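Two entries, shown back to back:
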Amino acid sequence: MPRLTRIYTGKGDQGTTSLVGGRRVAKDSLRVNAYGSVDELNSQIGLAISLGLHEDLVRILKTVQNDLFHLGADLATQEEDKQRVRVPQIEPRHVDALEQVIERFTTELGPLENFILPGGSPGAAALHVARTACRRAERECIALSRAEPIGAHVLAYLNRLSDALFMMARYENHAHGVSDAYWDSRA
């Protein structure tokens, strides 16, 4: 585990930052945008947890938050540097765990009959915001992957996580007795 002895270094004052492995890049590079969005997503999940989510969701989301640090390290390390610098990475087991969450809540809640509107209880609304942050992080990782290689399981993880967050928002509403609000396409 890294030991952070200093929070600021002043090295980024000119608009660059260091990737794991030492290479300096612009703070608005595709790679930094991608892992910055993952960091924002993690914060959104932390906010949702702080709203008093159902304990089953808190347990799952604490694991997801840790996994998102793995994802951030994965993205902050160029693929060619992963040979010499060991960093946690997203693996198939992380994707599988999210699929199990989605399947569990799909079984418990039943299939959707229509698109639902984001909202409901405060916790569910926060999970919907986290879901949209996850979708943005996924889009930014796709853009990065077109420019340079990224971890093999990054995109699948983010794709499953957004679906899992959607199902968790539905579950949070259900746990609080709040019905899904369906989209009225004729309105």
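entry 2 starts here
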Amino acid sequence: MRVISLFDTTGLMLKPWAEAGYECHAYDTQNKNEVDSDGIIKHNMNLYVPEIMDEIAKSSKDVVGIFAFPPCTDLSIAGARWWAKKARENPLFQEEAADRIKDVHKWCEKMREENDCFYMIENPRGSKLNDLWRKYDYSFSPHEYGAYLPEDDVHPIWPSRIPPRDAYFKKTALWTCKKFVMPSEKAVEAHRIKVGNRYHSPIFTGYTTAKLRSATPRGFARAIFESNSQDLRNAT
């Protein structure tokens, strides 16, 4: 059984599936063509090329789940300060960005019909997708699923920036199909850092990278696995 993750460089969403023996594939232009230490097969591919998406679909059989993390640069309200400049250069920049995500959704729907699989598409909750496509189906913050991780947890990539057990606040939205099962919350208290007179999530203070800010929360990834794995669902 195969699980696919699109626009994914870390593989964090796939790790629980790989540990359970699923064949896991992550696709992104920043990936190298390799198998990482968790057994996740990473592919360097441009997912905005229709022929490449057709190739992935033809080579992907027995798919049980699809995750997609398309870029939110032109749609997230966090980047609203640059929208006017971008609109002067291209008045349709947001419509075009939304259309690219709609194309990803169409591909996921086609895969769902052929494989009877679930899928979820992730973007910030404060996204123009809500206006240019449709409102999200679910939203969550990483700390709401932190207790799926052990008490002695340490982040494997950014231990000094991402609090243990994903104990930080960041509202994220999901656009899903009906087969997708949103997991039950197991929350921990979110850490906040005071800067001046305001409190901020630790991942938004100091120097941050887009890769850090967009990294899949591991507690949420574990929760998604437990609520959507065929093995676990068939056993309940």
